Amino acid sequence: MIVPRLIAPPEGAAALHWLVFALSGLGAACSDKGVLELFPQGSGGATTTAATTTAGGSSTSSNGGGGNACALGSHISTSELELPSAAAPSDEWHPITLAARADGSSLLAYRDANEARIRVVLVDEHGVVSDTLFETAALEVHALMAHDDGGGAVVFVREDPDIYFPDPCDAYPCASMELARFDAEGTLTMSATLTDKLTVDQEGALFVYWYEHTARMAYADDSYGVYFRSARTIPQPTGLEPRPGDTLRFVDATGARLERGWDFGCIPSWSVRLEHNGVWAAVCHGDTPNAHRFVVLDGDEQRQLLLLDGVRPSHRALGGLTAQGDDFWLSYLARFGDDVELHLARITSTPEIVIDRVLPEAVDLDFTDDSPVYLYRAYHAKLGDELLLGWKSHEQLVLATADSETGVITHGPFTTDAPIDHFVEFVSFPNGDVGWANAAASGSVTLTRVSPCTE
After folding, report:
1. pLDDT 10s digits, 81-109
2. Does position 40 have pLDDT exceeding 50, yes or no?
3. Residue 33: helix, strand or coil by DSSP?
4. How many CA atoms lie within 13 A of 249 on its CB side?
5. How many CB atoms lie within 10 A of CB 10?
6. C-alpha to C-alpha distance for 210 and 310, rounded to whole angstroms
7. Which of 167, 175, 213 is nearest to 14 (CA)?
């Protein structure tokens, strides 16, 4: 019999997330290594219009808005989108996902506010929604990418009746993580279920439960990598229980699983990132191990690095992960006492940290005092030949650019009114822009783009 620790979900996603961890009783006896050894890897829409406006904001340093430096504010534009239906407001379960297309347009995926359905729409380079390209029944959507053939791929959560068991699925849906590829006409060309098909009362069942949802996706070498937060039914002192963790799954272009990755990694897993630069890099914000775990997957070999080892999970957060030549840039936040630091770390594929720069320009960073809820984030992506960095200060987004070789701030900081939630990431466009999308509780859905600084 499964003995879940069930708590009715409150409105605050992160508060709920921590509460499960706090009650879970995870300790040294349930180590990451032990669990890994126990469970080895195993349509069309009407054309609409949008008004484009320049996002408001202010320079917070002498080079943020004038002189011979880049005036970041003049490079930011925010468009209000008219979608085919109302979008669920952005939160941990319902982020607005964005994917850049080669022609400068984008794909945008959202969960419908009124029905269990996701839609992928086309948005032109001016922020005008032109069509619904793909839609399907789903609870949530978490990752999106565009392919050069005009289609794309999307990762979403769907309730799975095949794994249903009354306790715990009557309290909250037991779901699967799904990958679907579609062509330029929106026709489904491939699908794969990334979780397993054991009913959730059985030992080893792998599924998506209410506390683990986030997914990241990348495509390389004719295969998809999808890193997502998951749940697994494992033995505990009180019996079988679903535990929160994460899964790194690889499938080929036909949807067949590949013998790489892992079924159950960081435990619990608060957040994940995934990137490829000839090798794969997967990063989790873990509780066991109590660190940011950076894993390089090079063929059949896995190499690991721990950052902020021993720093409590609520005192750190992941930012962006981007490729830089044979290396990677990882941004992250760390709190020590009353000070919160924004780090930009250059990490080799060994992996080894060759630069770990604390950015002094990032001041008054938002954090949540002694509460276990951590609603602060960092962001970064490639912006032309530089990096665009973002962080929250006084609940507003602050932007700056950094040299892509050294990580030194080159322009900014600049505080902007452009809305962003805590769960999306910056997205790089082929023309050098960076973008992101947001759905406000008011119903307004916006797309913000930042163009590169050229002097």
Report:
1. 999 999 999 999 999 999 999 999 999 99
2. no
3. helix
4. 26
5. 9
6. 27
7. 213
Q: Within 10 Å of residue 451's Cβ, how many Cβ atoms?
A: 17
> pTM (2 decimals)?
0.87
Chain centroid offset of residue 450 CA: 19
Q: Whole-angstrom distance between the N-terminal and C-terminal Cα of the chain? A: 66
Among 188, 205, 179, 202, CA closest to 257: 179
Is residue 36 classed as helix, strand or coil in its secondary structure? helix
pLDDT at 51: 33
The residue-averaged pLDDT of 249-264 equals 96
299: left (phi over 0), alpha (psi -120 to 50) or beta: left
Give bridge partners of residue 79 from the DSSP assignment.
Answer: 52, 447
Query: What average pLDDT is seen over the chain?
Result: 86
- H and E: helices and strands count for the chain: 3, 30
SS3 314: helix
CA angle 63, 455, 57 (to 5 degrees): 40
Strands 409-416 and 427-428: unpaired
Q: Which of 352, 286, 388 is nearest to 21 (CA)?
A: 286
Burial track 317-346 (b if 16+ CB lie within 10 A, e otherwise): bbbbbbbbeebbbbbbbbbeeeebebbbbb
Buried b (16+ CB within 10 A) or exposed e, 217-250: bbbeeebbbbbbbbbbbbebeeebbbbbbbbbbb
| For residues 175-179, average pLDDT | 98
